[in-house]
Structure prediction request, 526 residues.
Amino acid sequence: MEDILTYGFMQRALVAGVFISIACAILGVFLVLKRDAMLGHGLSHVTFGGVALGLFLGIKPLLMALVVAVFCSVIIQKLREKAGLYEDTAIGIFSSTGMAIGIILVTLSGKFNVDLFSYLFGNILAIERFEVVIAVFLAVTVIMVISFFYQELLYQTFDAEAARTSGIRIGFLDAVLAVLTSITVVIGMKVVGILLVAALLVIPSAAGLQIAKTFRQAVIISSVVSIGSVIAGLFAAFYWDLPAAGTTVVVAFLVFLAFGTLRILKKRGVLE
Amino acid sequence: MDLAANNEPLVSVKNISFSFGSTKVLEDINLSITQGDFLAVIGPNGSGKSTLVKIILRIYEPGNGSIVLLGEDLKNFEQWDKIGYVPQKATNIDPFFPVSVREVVGMGLLSKKSFPRFLLRRDEKIIDQALEQVDLKDFKSRRIGELSGGQQQRVFIARAIVNQPSLLFLDEPTTGVDAETQERFYSMLGTLNQAHQITIVLITHDLGILNKHVNKIACLNQRLVFHGMHDDFCNSELVQELLRGEHHLVCHRH
Ligand SMILES: Nc1ncnc2c1ncn2[C@@H]1O[C@H](COP(=O)(O)OP(=O)(O)OP(=O)(O)O)[C@@H](O)[C@H]1O
Ligand SMILES: [Mg+2]
Prediction:
C-alpha cells in the first residue's frame, strides 16, 4: 500500500486521475439531466480527429486535440441553436467527420501504432509531467467555472423556460457547458482513452442520480463514485496488470448497478 | 420609477402578432395591465394564451409590435426579479430529477443576483418564508418528485413569489389540484393581490374562479375577443354567446 505511492508514475496518475474524475462527474450530472450525454460521446470522436492532426503535424496531440475539440464544441453549439429540432444531427455529423478525418490523417502519418493505442484506450500510468500540469489546471478550471455558474446551470437544467424569465442567459450557459465538455473529454482521454471517456462522463453521474435526493447530493455522490472508480482502476493496473481504463469503467458500472438496485428495492418498500 | 403614481400600465402590449412557422397563433393583440389588476386570461385550447404570456416574458420573440414591461422596452428589460412566473404544466417535471423543494424555491432568488449567483445564509430565511406562504415548510428537504401534483404546483408558486414580485404570471396553476386546495390557493392569490398589491395575470379554464377575485378579463381566440372589466364582460353579448352554458358560472356574483 505504501510502496505503491512511492512510484513517481503512480503519484502523477493519482493526482491527474482524481482531478479529472471530479471534473467529469460534476459536468456529467448536468449533461445526463439535460439528456445531453451524447455531446460527450460526439466530442470524443472529434477529439480523435484532433489527436490525429497532432500526430500528423508533429504537434503535441493533447494540445492539438484541445484546440480542435473546443473549436468544434462551439460550432456544434451554434448549429444546435440554429437547427432547433435536429440537435443530435449536429453532433452526429461532427463526430463521424472528426473520426473520418482522424483515420485519414493517422494513416497518412504512418502512426497506426502503440502511440495511437494509448490515446484510444488511455494510458494514465504513462502520463507525463507536463500533461499532469495541464490536466490538473484544466480540471480545476472546469470545476471552478461550474461552481461559479452552479445555481444558474441547475435552474436551466431543471426548467429552461422559467430560468429565462429569471434573466438567466440560456444560450450562453449552453455554450459554456459545450466548451467545458470538450475540455473535459480531452483530459478525460488521458485517463480512460477516447473510446471510454464518454463513459466517465455518464456512468458515475448516472450512479449518483440513482440515490440522490438533492442536487448537491447528486454532485457529491457522483464525484465520489468517479474518484473511487479511477483509483480502483489504477490499483487494478498496478497489482494485477489489468488495463486501468477498462477496470475504471467496469467499477463505475458496478456501483451504478448497486445504486440502481438500491433505488428499486427502496421503491418496492423492501428497504426502510 | 413609481408606475402607479403616474398611472402608466405595468404591461402594455401593442400590435403583437405571432406565428409558429406558418401557423398563425396571435393576431394584432393590444392589451394593457395596470397596477393592482387581477386579470384572468381565458379562451379555448390553442387560442394562444400561453404563447401571449411567453411573449411578454421574452421566451418567444414576436415578429412585430412592441411590449413595454414595468416601464422598460421588453428588448432591454432587466428587472426580472420583479416578475414571477408559474409555467403551464410546471408539474410535468422529471420525477427523478434530484432536486429538493428548497433548491427549487432558491432558483427564484437568482434573478435578484448578479454573477456569481450564489445563495447565501440569509437566503435560507427568505426561502422559508415563501414556503410558509404556500404551507409547505415541512417539505423543504424533500425531493420534489416525491410530492403530489398539487404540492409540486405550490412549490412552483413559492418559487414565483419568493422575490415578492410586483407582477405574477400564472399559467393554469391549479390543474390537477384538488378542490379544497384550489379554494385555499385562490384565496391566497386574492390576498397577494389585495394585501400585498401584487398584480396578477392568471390563465385559466376554471370559469368558476372568475367571480371571486378577478377584476378584469381578457378573452383570447387568436385575436383578443374581449378585454375589460369583469362586469362589462358579463354584459357583452359576444361573450354570452361564447360561453353559453357556462355564463352563469362567471357572471353570477355571490
Ligand atoms: N412550440 C410550438 N411549436 C409549434 N406550435 C406551437 C407551439 N406551442 C404552441 N403551438 C401552437 O400555438 C397555438 C397556441 O398555443 P398555446 O399554448 O398558446 O395555447 P393555449 O391557449 O395556451 O392553449 P391551452 O388552453 O391548451 O393551454 C396552438 O395552436 C399550438 O398548437
Ligand atoms: Mg396554455
In short: The radius of gyration of chain B is 18 Å.
